[in-house]
Specification:
Elements lengths: L1 H15 L10 H4 L3 H11 L15 H7 L2 H9 L7 H24 L7 E13 L4 E12 L8 E4 L1 H14 L20 H19 L2 H4 L2 H20 L3 H18 L4 H17 L3 H15 L8 H14 L5 H12 L10 H5 L6
Antiparallel strand pairs: 1-2, 2-3
Helix pairs in contact: 1-4, 1-5, 10-11, 10-12, 11-12, 12-13, 13-14, 14-15
Amino acid sequence: MASKILHKFRRKVKKHNTTEETAEDFPERSELDDDDTEGLSARLSGTLSFGDVGVPDEDCTQTAAANSDSDFTQSFESGGIEYTESLWGEVKHCNVLTKQLQESWKKSKGNYIVEKLIFEVTSANVVQDSSSKYVAYTIHIIKSGSFDDHKALIIRRYTDFAKLNEKLHKHFKEEMSNVVFPKKIIRKNFTHETIAKRSRAFEQYLQHIHSITDICRSKVFLDFFYLHDLKASQGLLRGGMCEDAIETLMNALHLQQKLGSWDAEHLLFTQASISLCYQELDRLEEAQAYCEQALQTIDNQKNHPLLVPLLHSNIRLSWKIAKDKRQSEARLQQLQESGIDVLNHPSLKEYLIKDFLD
């Protein structure tokens, strides 16, 4: 009953305001075409209410029930326009809220968030070893414009940056002509002022060279970020230190993803090594997931040395976690029928701990 009453009331309000409302009164509505209005109505459905914000439209029956049935019916079934004060306030509040949402939607329409990388020096520590003293700079690589929960960082010293700069000048002489690199100084290398200035200089340097398309996609630039981690993880694998290797490999993987690395061999080594580490730690579902990713990276390279070991590994892992393994078995069968020996291959671990990266 209350819902029918409310429906009649809305028709009365609409009829009464027909001669008063114009496109100038509601510019937001006039600027929306039919499709946009329908889309907006769909987005606003269930969010507007006569009363507290957040109560669904269907619950308006509760508001109607709170009023006296006789007074409420008489207020809009009579010929006059005598609305109860509380209900009129709710209608007014509804119109204001609708206009605000429309205006907000118009302002946000067409806005696109641009993703970019930010290089930030988060710490700088003076390191003293048996042969030298230097400053180790920790640089976090952050993807702005989106939620970035994948930590990716590098730790480099001045000489590492100097070697990178030298290689880039050798391969990209013209592009590097306007790039400023912090000069080497003999005295006061370890003062707070010098370290702070160099930290900002390294941030600007990386930001600048990353903005140059040919450089940011080059092997020299990419190797500076993650090749060190890949080689370190290979050494950890050889020593059976799988937990430490996973941490290093995940950092390398995040760096490759953020930097947009095109080197499929480095990505393959990373994925296969992560899978191997999870196998050694008996975390089979994660091992199978990364094994499958590695197989996707190989794609149709049937002569790749890692293909057969990865297929064997994926079949075994899929069987252990009760996952369908028929696709890998069929692929392995095709390789055997093409003349490839699939039974006398080294294991995945034997391949990865060799000089695969070289």
